[in-house]
Specification:
mainly alpha; 5 helices; 0% strand
């Protein structure tokens, strides 16, 4: 794949991660990243996620030529994070009353 397509995949996976994180938080879950968790105590979680995900995406886009060799691995990392979020959501849905 071209670096631009990997960038598109990276963006989509980060947007999915943010959406899954917000859903998990709504179900009573917590953010796994301690820095983001601390920020979410002071600022609305959607704003924190939008700012951090936006910063990741802009930084990767600006440094695309340098990051291109690492972009598949970075995307795979966030795919794994999304998979973990899905597992946690499934657990939360089992324990959360309807």
């Amino acid at each position: 794949m071209t670096p631009e397509r990997w960038l598109a995949a990276f963006v989509l996976v980060n947007v999915l991660d943010a959406a899954l994180t917000l859903y998990a938080l709504k179900l009573g879950g917590s953010e796994g990243n301690p820095l983001l968790r601390a920020m979410m105590r002071r600022v609305h979680p959607a704003l924190v996620l939008a700012a951090t995900k936006g910063a990741y995406i802009v930084a990767v886009g600006v440094m695309l030529a340098q990051i291109a060799p690492w972009l598949p691995w970075m995307t795979a990392f966030f795919v794994a994070v999304c998979a973990w979020n899905v597992v946690q959501i499934m657990r939360l849905r089992k324990t959360t009353p309807a």
